[in-house]
Write a structure and sequence with these properties.
It is a single chain. By secondary structure, this protein is mainly α. α2 packs across α4, α6 packs antiparallel against α8 and α11 packs parallel to α16.
């Protein structure tokens, strides 16, 4: 249990620091600029999920998951697919969405390092049970994002803090971020953090080097992973795409339905809540190899995940709205309402994750994916429906579509939880059931 807690807390710390850096950037720039950045980055992350092809989970659970050649092959395929997707998106779709090709290009570079390279490097390190190096990588990732904020808005944030503490009014030139290299703050932040993340990815490949495993696996006959590995990766890809729809794709759907300032509010809140998601989901990643080996310590998982979710969701709903409103000077519309709605989403999602873990241990992966498919269909369908209502010619003035928009992910999570509980067996007899197929989300 102590290893699981340390592993998960380091992941939580890294994601929390990244979210804090995003909040600092949101304070420094206008909501419209932050909304454009959030849209571009979320589209890039979606392309990264597609490009990974489930490779990070495959490296985590397959017998050759520690091999250097398998890591390189998966990364070459993933980054190659990602490059094709990003180029096609930047040329064909980004202009239609009103996103500048410049900001999308740098968001794409950042997502390639973080969503493809670093995911696979961390999976290999975890497979090798080098948890200390995994924790080091999480700290370096958050440091990379912090460096990006320092370069983009550091002086302005410093002068804002001085003005807040001393009560003196400083000139607008000092308190307005200018960025570096003659660029605006958001492009500067994305570019610097992308470059640093690429350096961290290369460092991680060096840290995950295992000479014995690499020598054993260096065979000239296989340039790509096996067909069985690709089939397993497709199962994980489907699982990751369903998970993406619950929170991150909500920013994309908000971009289709509302103004950039409201998109920025949704993005600020999702960055906070996604940081909290890391704890239960990283616990799942910690227990996944142990479930595959038959050591299904589900009771530990349930106690830790639910014990963390209850107080955090309550504190998020009560304290975070007040702190966020004051920190961001009320510039982001309807932030309090959004944060309280997603606090409820997070709370329900923690229990959904626990139920899904037990379904995986019981080898009921088909039913788990059925639950995710229903939830994703509700989220995407509801978001697109509200976007259509927003842009329709009919009179919708009497409807508060933004509030309805926030209710959709809550409803989807509740439906998934009810379905998962219905699929659970009546008796608690699964603690000793080996679940070597828990990783094969087919």
């Amino acid at each position: 249990m102590s290893e699981a807690l340390i592993f998960s807390l380091f992941n939580l710390m890294a994601r929390g620091l990244s979210s804090a850096a995003g909040l600092l950037l949101a304070r420094a720039v206008a909501p419209e600029a932050f909304g454009e950045y959030a849209l571009a980055l979320n589209y890039a992350v979606l392309l990264g999920v597609l490009a990974r092809l489930g490779g990070n989970e495959v490296l985590l659970v397959t017998p050759d998951g520690a091999s250097g050649s398998a890591l390189r092959r998966w990364m070459v395929v993933g980054i190659g697919v990602y490059a094709l997707l990003a180029i096609g998106f930047a040329l064909g779709i980004a202009p239609l969405l009103g996103m500048s090709a410049f900001i999308f290009a740098f968001c794409a570079l950042r997502a390639a390092a973080e969503q493809v390279g670093l995911q696979m490097v961390n999976s290999r390190l975890q497979r090798q049970e080098r948890l200390g190096r995994v924790n080091l990588m999480t700290v370096l990732i958050s440091l990379a994002v912090a460096i990006g904020v320092a370069c983009a808005a550091g002086p302005a944030l410093y002068h804002q803090a001085v003005a807040l503490i001393s009560g003196t009014a400083l000139s607008e030139q000092l308190t307005t971020p200018a960025g570096m290299f003659g660029l605006a703050p958001v492009p500067t932040f994305v570019m610097v953090s992308a470059i640093v993340l690429v350096i961290v990815m290369l460092l991680g490949m060096w840290l995950s080097h295992d000479a014995a495993a690499d020598a054993h696996d260096e065979t000239p006959h296989a340039r790509l992973p096996s067909k069985a590995a690709f089939a397993r990766g497709r199962g994980f890809l489907y699982n990751n795409l369903m998970s993406f729809a619950y929170l991150q794709a909500w920013v994309i759907l908000a971009g289709l339905a509302f103004a950039p300032a409201q998109v920025a509010s949704v993005s600020v809140v999702t960055s906070i809540v996604f940081a909290l998601y890391v704890f239960p989901t990283s616990l799942y990643r910690y227990y996944l190899p142990k479930l595959a080996q038959g050591d299904a310590r589900l009771r530990e998982y349930l106690i830790i995940a639910t014990g963390f979710a209850l107080p955090v969701a309550g504190g998020l709903a009560l304290v975070a709205p007040w702190l966020a409103e004051h920190f961001l000077n009320g510039a982001y519309p309807r932030l309090t309402l959004t944060l309280r709605a997603f606090a409820l989403v997070y709370l329900v999602h923690a229990f959904v994750t626990c139920a899904f873990t037990r379904l995986a241990a019981l080898r009921k992966n088909g039913k788990r994916l059925l639950c995710q498919s229903v939830g994703a269909a509700l989220v995407v369908g509801g978001g697109l429906s509200i976007a259509a209502l927003t842009h329709s010619d009919g009179s919708q003035a009497q409807w508060d579509l933004y509030s309805i928009f926030l209710c959709v992910p809550v409803a989807a999570e509740v439906v998934m939880l009810v379905m998962a509980l219905c699929f659970q067996p009546a008796r608690q007899h699964s603690a000793d059931v080996p679940a070597e197929s828990a990783a094969a989300s087919t």
